[in-house]
């Protein structure tokens, strides 16, 4: 009898142990992956990174339930190059996603009418996970190119880079994408131009038929003159509004345009519902979701439900709307029982946009204590971004890691998690974060990180092995305008080269663990390590640059807007459609 009781007790304890293990250990060797990237979000815009006036409870929840990365670094301070590095784990200077052009507009892909884009031979984390049986999707912003030779060749479409499913904006948010008083005037002008063109075409056809049937007696020269006049109107219309709402502000499902122009105020909720739907469709198999938010890029097309809810005007409203959308995705993961088997990562593509203004109101992000912002690839405010990663049962909740990490680390980290191998025919600049995240190692595997503005090296950081110091060396810095400002307000974006930058010889030196705001430059007079640090970093830069191979620059030669490459829903130039059905609810 006693033996039977002991057996029951042992079996109960074993059962309890197994049940406990089942609730804490990931049940599948291939976890789901949800990567969430904000656009232009400042590191100081989130509650868990020190903002006490903006409400971001859902994103803050990831900090609480996961690991917070406080020195998480973007490879560039602008959208297109930073995102290419995130996708490939490689510096943009290796892939050609850079520009030597003095025209700042060419530092990103400026239009859907350009031929440039992420080279097709580049391998992304989506392609690697797809090889390992993952269902993959990109919902949201792409900004890595679209067409090469023809309007519908879609040579740079996400489907070619490992994403099974795409729904979103192939370009990026721009000022014409939101209806504002000035934008309404522009749209009214465009509408009248369309109407005039239609009348002109009807008039030419009528006169031509009348002339051929001898019903009207007018010289052919008159008809030809009208045609020539119409051609001039059309020509100037296309090029006057070449970056207008009709050409760049579109939504696509897979390779079909669903909205042209898109209704930006509702697009965030449509994309959130697409993300939720993808999770639900794939909950019984491993999936990768890259949820690439349009938030919080200007022009801040906030839905009516969130207008006026924050303490920080237009920008604050858009941040709080973003947090709501992220919360809906997290709630879906929880509701479908996927929490313990899903890696969730959140970041921004670069720092907040200091020069973004609407009248006298600042509508860009807040970069906290860090100097600089979007477009400033050397200063911390342009490249230090919020980073957090959650994997219940595997990663310690509430942990904070202050070591240097990079957006480029996500690809090698995911490859290691799924048992994949990285490409052996190219340099991968990212590092597997899992040993650092799990506490197996204490020190970042990035001894050096290089901070490029386009193809020009502006700064580098050195985190010596077995040391807590993080040295930052600036070779070039942008000139803030007007003098004494904290950004380039007179020219809207800081430059990478030319007369609006300063070359430092000797270089500027900061020690970030003591001076994270880069406000106290060091010199041989106040820092005994000055000469050693400068020499070490210069040697590292020289060694790194020897690994760079010449590649075509996608943002220079190929970044010219071509009318015949612009996507069109309908018969060109009448490119208007709305194929959305539902998907607008909160």
Automatic annotation (TrEMBL):
Instruction: Return the Gene3D superfamilies for the record.
Output: 3.30.1120.10, Alkaline Phosphatase, subunit A, Helix hairpin bin
Segment forming the signal sequence = 1-23
Name the InterPro entries on file.
Alkaline_phosphatase_core_sf, Sulfatase, Sulfatase_CS, Sulfatase_N
Membrane-crossing residues? 192-213, 220-239
Q: State one Pfam family annotation.
A: Sulfatase
**Gene Ontology cellular component annotations, sorted alphabetically:** endoplasmic reticulum
Q: Please give the cofactor(s) recorded in the UniProt entry for this protein.
A: Ca(2+)
Q: Where is the Sulfatase N-terminal domain?
A: 31-419
Q: Which GO terms describe its molecular function?
A: arylsulfatase activity; metal ion binding
User: Keywords of this protein's UniProt record, alphabetized?
Assistant: Calcium, Hydrolase, Membrane, Metal-binding, Signal, Transmembrane, Transmembrane helix
Asked if the record carries the keyword Transmembrane, the reply is: yes
Similarity field? Belongs to the sulfatase family.
Classification via PANTHER family = ARYLSULFATASE F, ARYLSULFATASE FAMILY MEMBER
Q: What is this protein called?
A: Arylsulfatase F-like
């Amino acid at each position: 009898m006693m033996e039977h009781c002991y057996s029951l007790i042992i079996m109960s304890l074993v059962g309890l142990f197994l049940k406990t293990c089942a609730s804490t250990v990931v049940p599948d060797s291939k976890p789901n992956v949800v990567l969430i990237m904000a656009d232009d979000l400042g590191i100081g815009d989130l509650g868990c990174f020190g903002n006490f006036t903006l409400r971001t409870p859902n994103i803050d929840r990831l900090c609480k339930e996961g690991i917070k990365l406080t020195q998480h670094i973007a490879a560039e301070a602008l959208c297109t190059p930073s995102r290419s590095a995130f996708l490939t784990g490689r510096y943009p200077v290796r892939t050609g996603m850079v520009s030597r052009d003095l025209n700042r507009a060419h530092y990103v892909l400026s239009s859907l009418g350009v031929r440039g884009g992420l080279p097709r031979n580049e391998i992304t984390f989506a392609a690697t996970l797809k090889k390992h049986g993952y269902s993959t999707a990109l919902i949201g912003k792409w900004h890595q190119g679209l067409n090469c030779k023809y309007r519908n060749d879609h040579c740079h479409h996400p489907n070619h880079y490992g994403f099974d499913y795409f729904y979103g904006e192939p370009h990026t948010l721009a000022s014409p994408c939101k209806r504002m008083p000035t934008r309404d005037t522009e749209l009214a002008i465009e509408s009248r131009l369309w109407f005039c063109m239609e009348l002109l075409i009807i008039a030419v056809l009528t006169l031509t038929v009348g002339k051929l049937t001898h019903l009207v007696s007018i010289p052919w020269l008159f008809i030809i003159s009208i045609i020539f006049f119409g051609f001039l109107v059309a020509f100037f219309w296309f090029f006057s509004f070449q970056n207008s709402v009709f050409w760049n502000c579109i939504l696509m499902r897979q390779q079909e345009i669903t909205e042209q122009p898109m209704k930006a105020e509702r697009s965030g909720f449509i994309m959130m519902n697409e993300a939720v739907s993808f999770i639900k469709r794939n909950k019984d198999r491993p999936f990768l979701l890259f949820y690439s938010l349009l938030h919080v890029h200007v022009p801040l097309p906030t839905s009516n439900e969130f207008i006026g809810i924050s303490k920080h005007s237009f920008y604050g409203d858009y941040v709080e709307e973003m947090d709501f959308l992220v919360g809906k995705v997290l709630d879906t993961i929880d509701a479908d029982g996927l929490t313990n088997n899903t890696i969730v990562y959140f970041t921004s593509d670069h720092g907040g946009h200091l020069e973004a203004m609407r009248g006298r109101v600042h509508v860009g992000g807040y970069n906290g204590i860090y100097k600089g912002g979007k477009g400033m690839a050397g200063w911390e405010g342009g490249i230090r971004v919020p980073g957090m990663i959650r994997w219940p049962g595997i990663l310690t909740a509430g942990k904070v890691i202050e070591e240097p990490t990079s957006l480029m680390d996500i690809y090698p980290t995911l490859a290691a998690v799924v048992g994949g191998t990285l490409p052996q025919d190219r340099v991968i600049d990212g590092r597997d974060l899992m040993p650092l995240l799990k506490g197996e190692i204490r020190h970042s595997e990035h001894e050096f990180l290089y901070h490029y503005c386009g193809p020009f090296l502006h700064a580098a950081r050195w985190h010596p092995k077995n040391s807590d110091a993080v040295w930052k060396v600036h070779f070039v810095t942008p000139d803030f305008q007007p003098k004494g400002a904290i950004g380039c307000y007179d020219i809207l974006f800081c430059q990478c080269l030319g007369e609006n930058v300063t070359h430092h010889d000797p270089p500027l030196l900061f020690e970030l663990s003591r001076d994270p705001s880069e406000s106290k430059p060091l010199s041989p007079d106040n820092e005994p390590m000055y000469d050693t640090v400068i020499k070490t970093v210069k040697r590292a830069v020289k060694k790194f640059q020897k690994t760079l191979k010449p590649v075509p620059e996608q943002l220079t030669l190929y970044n010219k807007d071509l009318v015949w490459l612009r996507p069109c829903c309908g018969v060109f130039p009448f490119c208007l459609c709305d194929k959305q059905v539902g998907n607008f609810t909160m």
